[in-house]
TrEMBL record:
Keywords: ATP-binding, Cytoplasm, Kinase, Magnesium, Metal-binding, Nucleotide-binding, Transferase
Pathway: Metabolic intermediate biosynthesis; acetyl-CoA biosynthesis; acetyl-CoA from acetate: step 1/2
Gene this protein is translated from: ackA
SUPFAM superfamilies: Actin-like ATPase domain (SSF53067)
Function, as annotated: Catalyzes the formation of acetyl phosphate from acetate and ATP. Can also catalyze the reverse reaction.
An annotated GO BP: acetyl-CoA biosynthetic process
UniProt name for this protein: Acetate kinase
Length: 406
């Protein structure tokens, strides 16, 4: 059996899986693991094989050291990159800018182009690039493929993509809406027509990726026409630690009145805002517990979150004109029954007939949580970004081999 090694490299961590690209969305990966706290006095490498976790705690000075340890642990259980057939290494890259609307075989030129995009994603692309360089050095004979979070939204209509600011400034500094979570929105939106038993080219849908980061997308006939995140992942819905859409004048106000620096405001809006900024926690299980304990800050944070979510659902229904399905995915979307119910509360007049009993069913399978006669169907579809990356990477690698590049 052939596998794709899927890598998601962060500034101090590397998540990885060995995935069968021909598998189903609900299949468990052959291997999953995490290298964490790279560069800290003490880190950890964990590798899960067959449901059994193997963990080492040690200092991890570099990403390459961490991956070497991970590969060694995998090798001890006969599932290392040289023990099984690895046909590609798929790398999640957060920002592809205007350059990349498709996955790319990583060669030196592509690596350089990803580096050029760092100003658009200074918190993410450098770490993604580090992971690419480390993995290419460690596995030089295997095709490496970059799969971009922004690619799915690369061609949304100009009216949705462009901001109403001076066009020369916007053009010079690549200021536009790029959107994120594209791999997840694309994967989930491709499952929905199958559930509806309709031609994908006829389906209009809204997809809601709700995790610690959250985004919404409006998709007409298989192509996105709008999405909530913007130049950066900070825009759109209120999230776990990010504020979502705010009046940009708030930034000027904090500079002038609070004397805050750009870095302080960056940290405030990205890491100390959203649900956490109001309630003190960003884990929705803890938030729910606090709401049950009558914590007013937790209740306020939840209401703001739901209010923003309903705003985007409503605006996308208008943008699409006709909606066939609304789909929830990711950690909160797949598991929080109250979020789903409250997001669609009392919308029968818009053709959304919610089924409270179906909503309470716990499952890892795609499922409908609207009534059978609901004009707008509502689904929960578990996302599987790793499988999507594996499938895209396998296809690019096969083409590279067909062209004699490997």
């Amino acid at each position: 059996m052939a596998y794709v090694l899927v890598l998601n490299s962060g500034s101090s961590s590397v998540k990885f899986q060995l995935v069968d690209p021909a598998g189903e969305a609900t299949d468990a990966p052959l291997v999953s693991g995490l290298v964490e706290q790279v560069g800290e006095p003490m880190g950890a490498v964990s590798v899960t094989v067959g449901g059994q976790e193997h963990r080492e705690e040690l200092e991890i000075p570099t990403h390459s050291f961490g991956l070497e340890r991970a590969f060694a642990i995998m090798g001890e259980h006969n599932v290392g990159p040289t023990d099984v057939e690895v046909i590609a290494v798929g790398h999640r890259v957060v920002h592809g800018g205007k350059l990349f609307s498709e996955p790319q075989l990583i060669v030196d030129e592509i690596e350089s182009m990803i580096e050029d995009l760092i100003p658009l994603a200074p918190l993410h692309n450098p770490a993604n690039l580090d992971g690419i360089r480390v993995a290419r050095a460690m596995l030089p004979d295997i095709p490496h493929v970059a799969v971009f979070d922004t690619a799915f939204f690369n061609h949304i209509p100009p009216a949705a993509a462009l901001y109403a600011i001076n066009s020369e400034v916007a053009s010079q500094y690549d200021v536009r809406r790029y959107g994120f979570h594209g791999t997840s929105h694309e994967f989930v939106s491709q499952q929905v027509p199958k559930l509806l038993d309709k031609d994908p080219a006829t389906v209009n849908q809204i997809t809601l990726h709700l995790g610690n980061g959250a985004s919404a997308a409006a998709i007409r006939h298989g192509r996105p026409i709008d999405t909530s995140m913007g130049l950066t992942p900070l825009a759109g819905l209120a999230m776990g630690t990010r504020c979502g859409d705010i009046d940009p004048g708030i930034i000027f106000h904090l500079v002038r009145q609070a004397g805050m620096s750009i870095d302080e405001i960056d940290n405030l809006l990205n890491k100390q805002s959203g649900v956490k900024g109001i309630a003190g926690v960003n884990d929705f299980r803890l938030l729910r517990q606090r709401i049950e304990e009558q914590d007013q800050d937790a209740w306020l944070a939840y209401n703001i979150y739901i209010h923003q979510l309903r705003r985007f659902i409503g605006s996308y229904m208008i943008a699409l004109g006709r909606v066939d399905a609304i789909t929830f995915t990711a950690g909160v979307g797949e598991n929080d029954t109250e979020v789903r119910q409250d997001a669609l509360y009392n919308l029968d007049m818009y053709g959304i007939h919610f089924d409270k009993e179906a909503n309470l069913v716990r499952s890892k399978e795609p499922r409908m949580i609207s009534t059978a006669d609901s004009p707008v169907k509502v689904f929960v579809v578990p996302t599987n970004e790793e499988l999507a990356i594996a499938q895209k990477s396998a296809a690019v690698a096969a083409q590279a081999r067909a062209e004699g590049l490997y």
